[in-house]
Amino acid sequence: MSEPMSAQEIWDKTYQLLLDQPLELTPREAACLTDISATNMFGTMIVLTVSNEFTRTVIEKKLHASLTAAFAQVTGQTITFVIQIDPDVLARQSATTTQTLPRVSAEHTSTSQFPVITAQSPVVTRDSFDFAEEPAPVTTTTSLPIVEAADAKGDMTITPTTTMSYRDEATHLNKNARFDNFVPGDSNKFAKNIALAAAERPGLEYNPLFIYGASGLGKTHLLNAIGNHALLMNPHLRVRYTNSEEMTNEFVYALEQSRHTNTVMNDFNHRYRDVDILLVDDIQFIAGRDATVEWFFNTFNELYENGKQIAIVSDVAPKNLKGLPDRLISRFNQGLPVNIDPPAHELRVAILRMKAKTQHVDIPMDVLDLIAEKVTDNVRELEGALTRVVAMSSLNNKQITKSLAEQTLSDYTNTTIEITPANIITSVANYYKLTFDDVVGSSRTKNVAQARQVAMYMSRELTSMSLVDIGAIFGGRDHSTVMHACRKIVSEMSENMETFNAVKELTAHLKQNGEYAAR
Ligand SMILES: Nc1ncnc2c1ncn2[C@@H]1O[C@H](COP(=O)(O)OP(=O)(O)OP(=O)(O)O)[C@@H](O)[C@H]1O
């Protein structure tokens, strides 16, 4: 009998097959193929190891079907694959980070058993921020080499005057995303009420609860509010918030470790299965990650059968989720799918009024009306527009008036152009006369660091990506680095005309043309 092929042998053959196929890849994407190695095989599942997040995204988004077919051709069976970022690369990043951060004290570092990238990236040190009172970032006890922690976007109002939220160490909840600071209106009232009922009576009538809707409408906020409220009612409950990215990373890591010991996989299962409430954000992103889907299906069933509450968020209704098996979709439909629609004008004004109050700024009604007219579809962008107006007033030491707001938001157009982080990075590179690689790279030159922070801030403002995902795109940086970059740029926009103009001009070009062209 012939020896079964090793993971690397399978990959080598698959790689050769792929080279012979007409793949629709840009040269940069095609180069990613050389960054893949196969490090392990578990039955019919192969572990692919890559050195960065970009390669992983290319595999998932562009190569999934071709890879699956090529694996089948090479092995004669259906092979599923999981992708991990090389733990050595992450450990090296972690070491560099720690060395350059003498001020990060022991209490800020993770107690995790994993090699975690702590606190800051090598590029931005705490000293470079003028937030003397800034709270120490909380790191998690369950972190991974791949992501330290995902942010809960529900309360990420990026302003210098509000307290940026950090995830709770034990539950990963964003403590600041609550029902009492979620402004209800016709478009979200039903979802809010059902979420509140699920928080008050977990595991009963609304299980699973499935919340869906477009980007920036408050889904993550509600998901976190469920956990926070349930804990308020019963502090003994075991609650866990996660998102697809984090869950997948933890799963892949646990799987890798199971070569040496079962402890990591047991701990991982324990974290997700021994809970009373499991909150999963952005479930659409596990599509195509077959092994993770299988694991999640089993976890879902176990929790459901034991009467535990599950709440799930997605950008589309269960029936429109692509790349997930019907048996999982029918489970999602067992409970109650609820939709959040874009807010009407009155709700947008009410949200703006609440956000202005939180920032202790007085904004006349006609200005709130104007902002609400300019930004119609996304509450995150609504917050961004408000930030811009407040920054303009502070920069020029002028009162906030309708004409000041008009001037500030003159370039603000609702656009159908999809803005991606790649567009943002290319545009920022063009604006600052740098290269794409400079912006995502590790140079600490002042100009490069400034461009990188602007690009991170804009990725946060103009895309629906979480801090973790943005950090991953910017060379595998930690989520707290992204958060600090966002805070710094928001603060600078109120003090420095150059930064204000850079953000304004870049945003206008991206919204109108999808990119800022090189001059
Ligand atoms: N009704 C609301 N009241 C107060 N704040 C809101 C409301 N809706 C959204 N927000 C705020 O808007 C921002 C974006 O919301 P959130 O991140 O929850 O959106 P999302 O639907 O999860 O977006 P995505 O799909 O892009 O992840 C957050 O700061 C959130 O607190």
Topology:
Blueprint: H1 7-19, H2 27-30, E1 37-42, E2 45-50, H3 53-75, E3 80-85, H4 87-99, H5 189-200, E4 209-213, H6 219-233, E5 239-243, H7 244-257, H8 263-273, E6 277-281, H9 290-305, E7 309-314, H10 326-334, E8 336-340, H11 345-358, H12 365-374, H13 379-396, H14 402-408, H15 421-431, H16 436-440, H17 446-462, H18 467-473, H19 479-493, H20 497-513
Parallel strand pairs: 2-3, 4-7, 4-8, 5-6, 6-7
Antiparallel strand pairs: 1-2
Helix pairs in contact: 1-3, 5-6, 7-8, 11-12, 11-13, 13-19, 15-17, 17-19, 18-19
The protein binds adenosine-5'-triphosphate (ATP).
Adenosine-5'-triphosphate binds next to α6 and α13.
Question: Could you explain how this protein is built, in words?
Answer:
The chain has 519 residues and is of the alpha/beta class. Helices cover 48% and strands 8% of the residues. It has 20 helices and eight strands. The strands form two sheets. A five-stranded parallel beta sheet has the order 5-6-7-4-8, sandwiched between helices. The protein is globular. The termini are far apart. About 13% of the residues have low confidence. The structure holds adenosine-5'-triphosphate. Adenosine-5'-triphosphate binds next to helix 6 and helix 13. This is Chromosomal replication initiator protein DnaA.
Helicity range of the residues? 40-55%
Unreliable stretches: 96-165
Sheet with most strands: strand arrangement: 5-6-7-4-8
> Strand tally, please?
8
Q: Catalogue the ligands.
A: adenosine-5'-triphosphate
Helix/strand order, N-terminal first = HHEEHEHHEHEHHEHEHEHHHHHHHHHH
Outline the biggest β-sheet: 5 strands, parallel
Based on CA atoms alone, the radius of gyration comes out at 23 Å
CA-based shape:
globular
Global structural class: alpha/beta
Mean pLDDT: 80
Cα(first) to Cα(last) distance is 64 Å
Q: If helices are DSSP runs of H or I spanning 4 or more residues, what is the number of helices?
A: 20
**Which percent band covers the strand fraction?**
5-15%
InterPro entries: AAA+_ATPase, Chromosome_initiator_DnaA, Chromosome_initiator_DnaA-like, Chromosome_initiator_DnaA_CS, DnaA_C, DnaA_dom, P-loop_NTPase, Trp_repressor/repl_initiator
Organism: Alloscardovia venturai
Domain AAA+ ATPase: 205-341
Region (Domain I, interacts with DnaA modulators): 1-135
